[in-house]
Amino acid sequence: MKILLRTSLFLILALLTFSCGSMKNVSDSKSGRLGIRDTVPAKDSTEYELIVFDSGFDFWLNSHSHKENMYSNEYLQTMNYQYVVAWNNLYASGDRRIESYLDYSPLTKYNFEFNYRLYMYFKYFEETNRMKLTP
User: Fold this and answer.
1) Does residue 117 lie in a domain region?
2) What's the predicted TM-score (pTM) here?
C-alpha cells in the first residue's frame, strides 16, 4: 500500500504546437513542472513539454550520475517508444500504478533533452516500483 501511495505518479506528455517561428521556454519551476523545448525548423516550430508531477523524480535524477553523452537521440527515441507501448498497455489493462495515457509518436523527432528526461523517468518508475516495463 505504501508503494502504491508513493508511486501514485502522473506523467503527462503534452504536445504544444505553435505556428510562430520563435521558441518559448515552457519551464515552470515554481509548480514543479519540467518543460523542455524542441528545436525544429522555423517553418514548423513545435514545442514539447514533459510534465512530471512526482516530486521525487528530480531528486532521483540529480542523485544518480547518468552520463547524457552515452546515449544517442535515436537510441533514446527507440527505447522511449518501447517503454510507451508497455506503459499504455498497462494503462489499458487498468494497472493502478499507471494513471495516464502517453501520446508518443515514433515518427516525431523529439529533441535530445526531451527524450533523455522521458527515458530517465521510465528508469525511475521501474526502480521505485520494483518492476520492469520492457523485457
Assistant:
1) yes
2) 0.66
